[in-house]
Amino acid sequence: MKNQIRNIVLLLLTIAITVELDAQTDNNFSAHSVVVKIGWYYPALDNLNDNYLPELGYDNKFNGNYSIGGNIVFSLPANFRARAGVSYWSDKVINDNLYLFEKFKLSFTKFSLAAIYEVKKDKLLLIPYVGLQGSFFTITNKFTQNNSSSVQQGQDYSWAPLLGLEKTFANHFITGIEFLYQIGSYTQDVNIGIKTKKQKVLINGPELFFKLGYKF
Fold first, then answer.
1. Residue 145 confidence (pLDDT)
2. SS3 call for 203
3. d(CA 168, CA 190)
4. What is the pLDDT of residue 203?
5. In 3D, which of 69, 107, 108 has the Cα closest to residue 86?
6. Average pLDDT for consecutive 10-residue bins of the chain (216 residues)?
7. Which pLDDT score is estimated for 25?
8. Enclosing H/E stretch for 122
9. What is the per-residue pLDDT for 94?
10. Who's near 185: CB < 8 A, 6+ residues apart?
11. Spatial separation of the C-alpha atoms in residues 188 and 137, rounded to whole Å
12. Which residues, 6+ apart, have CB-to-CB distance to 182 below 8 Å?
C-alpha cells in the first residue's frame, strides 16, 4: 500500500508540473490542482461471492475496503474542469479450512478521465460539483498457498457518475468529499471440473472519498 501511495503522488506531481509549464500562456486551459484521496469502495462482485468463492471452498466473501488515489485537475472555460487520475483498491478472503488456497486477494487499479461542472457562487461556503468519470481498470487475482502464489490478470472499463463538495483555504489548500457510483463488470474464468466457464462479475457499487489537495 505504501508503494502505491508514493507512486500515485509522484505521478500526479510530475503531470501537474509539466502541464502547468506548458499552459502558462493559455488562460483557457491550465493545471488547477493536484489532489490525493482516501475512501471506501463496496463493489457488488456478485458471481464471485455467490458462486466462485464457494466452489473454491471459501466461507467468507469480499466486502468493501479502503481505496486510495489521486487526481490532477485542469481548469476549462465556463466553470468546467477536466481531470485525470489513478486509484487502487484491494480486498482479500481467508480460507479458515485451508482447502485448496489459504488466501485470495483481489485488486483493482484504475486509470480515469472525468468531466466536471462546478457551481460557483460567492456566498457558498462549499463549492458543489457534478460530473462523469470513465475508467480503464486492471484486475489482479492472487492466490496464496504454503508461501507460494499464482496470479491471474485482466482488464476492462467502467463508468461512474459523481458529485462532490470542496472548500479552498488560504487560496491554495483544498479539502472535500466526493461520492461516485461505479458501473461496470469484468469476465472471470471459473474452472468447473475439467472445463473452464466464463462468468460476468459486476463491480457496481458506491465509492466515497475524502480528499486533500493543493490549488495552483
1. 79
2. coil
3. 48
4. 95
5. 69
6. 53 52 57 93 92 80 93 91 94 75 89 92 86 95 82 92 94 95 88 70 96 93
7. 47
8. none
9. 84
10. 156, 200, 201, 202, 203, 204
11. 14
12. 41, 43, 158, 159, 160, 203, 204, 205, 206, 207
- Give dist(CA 168, CA 33) in Å, integer: 11
Q: How many CB atoms lie within 10 A of CB 145?
A: 13
Q: Which residue has the cell 472535500?
A: 176
Cα(130)–Cα(116) distance, rounded to whole angstroms? Answer: 6
**Predicted pLDDT at 100:** 64
Residues with Cβ within 8 Å of 148's Cβ and at least 6 positions away in sequence, in order, are none
Residues 145 and 101: beta-carbon distance below 8 Å: yes
- Residues 86/8, Cβ–Cβ less than 8 Å: yes
How high is the pLDDT of residue 30? Answer: 80
CA 150 – CA 196 distance, rounded (Å): 17
Give the pLDDT confidence score for residue 8 in this predicted structure: 53
Contact 145, 178 (CB under 8 A): no
Give the three-state DSSP class for 123.
coil
Percent helix, percent strand, percent coil in the chain, to nearest 5:
15, 60, 25
The Cα–Cα gap between 103 and 94 comes to: 5
What is the domain partition of the chain in residue ranges? 39-65+75-165+179-210
pLDDT at 123: 77
